[in-house]
């Protein structure tokens, strides 16, 4: 028996049956199911954000000092953000190849980390040296760039005509929740215990999810949709906005559920059956967007069926092929002269830059410097949150709680920045999206100063909220700005070039500043030199362990905010115009 929604999209037209083979084929081959697949992929791809959970296990089992742990965190950040090679591969290969490469790298890298941790306690198997562990962590984290590039670039190209900030905020928001999702599934599957089993889950689960959707993630030719002029777009954009709002509600419910579960599990002892029940609710919320996908595909199917009944539009000399060719990414206009002169003569904002033109662009250099300061500082806080709490005397259960909750604030920053910045960009004033980057950097300074103050109770909770929120907020803003200023033709490579600012900032502010100053203070507390053994002998206690570090980090972040104001000034005219005009008339 076939079921149908009551009433058609056009009012008086009878709705076609819903549960038919034709309709299921339409859903599985459509762009909305592709988006659903990308949300699931992103929800399992952010294992790098769980580093704060198992970093203490690495420190104690391997006998590393804090600078060695900071170096591991740097190589984790380097792998997670150095994706230029993934972007270049995306220029010549289909998305499924990027997903397959990412799955293989994730499995290989994190499996070696797991085997190293599992064998560290055995006398016959000494732990690997720091440089080898750095290679394992970097390889596993680098898989994230392949997966994120394949998923995000396909989504941006399948939804080019608007809501770009909302789309990227949603995708990055699910990635921000991934460490909390993985932690809940780890408790349900392995029952908790030690962090070694969490690393094993991180090795196989993201690879399995990516492999399951290899054939789904692709660039899909758009079907005919009506549109109307205007700054924010017309009917097609309004319908897409409705779907993104529904998906936002689902993601908020998912984040709220994770928040409740994390808090409850820190206050109450759960049985293995209790963890399994909570994971079942989590899986239900993860597949709930399928209902939104079915509803939207049903609406679009009815609209396509009704279009022949409408009066045909007036014919003009411009054909559909002409309009499509005008809107899709094309090569930048080639001026006369040498390659060097063309490189230093970039097109206007919003046109398609070549890779060399973007690399020497003042806008890209400003964006790179601002993001290096912003993400470098917030990553230093996130990667060291466990040690910060320990040095300030917080109970281990409290430390674990706000390390886990950073994932929730990370998500909140991503979706809030994506949706709010989209509304401001499309407002009557046309607020430049880089202005939101400035605001986020200034807000993160408050979190760094709270950590530097080192008050014994309460302030670290507030700092974790601010730092997690601001770290998450920077990513959809960065990727949206790159797509808007430099075009979509080389978007896969350019967004990875911009993201490479994150490991640069992490090395400067985490390894060279936070790691060295922590070890110097720990050596002072232990009589001038760190003990040769591992474990708690190398622990630093007190405000001075991270106080000076985060004063320096706050100053660097404020400098990044000042630099980003230059980009706000340079792009104010572009954002006052209609940034989506070139895509609106694609049919």
Automatic annotation (TrEMBL):
Record keyword Electron transport present: no
Chain ranges of the NFD4 C-terminal domain: 359-575
All residue ranges annotated as the Nodulin-like domain in the record: 31-294
Chief location category: membrane
Family matches, as Gene3D superfamilies: MFS general substrate transporter like domains (1.20.1250.20)
Claim: Transmembrane helix is one of the keywords in the record: yes
InterPro entries in the record: MFS_trans_sf, NFD4_C, Nodulin-like
Membrane topology: Multi-pass membrane protein
PANTHER family reported in the protein's UniProt record: NODULIN-LIKE FAMILY PROTEIN, EXPRESSED, UNCHARACTERIZED NODULIN-LIKE PROTEIN
Protein name per its UniProtKB record: Nodulin-like domain-containing protein
Biological source species: Urochloa decumbens
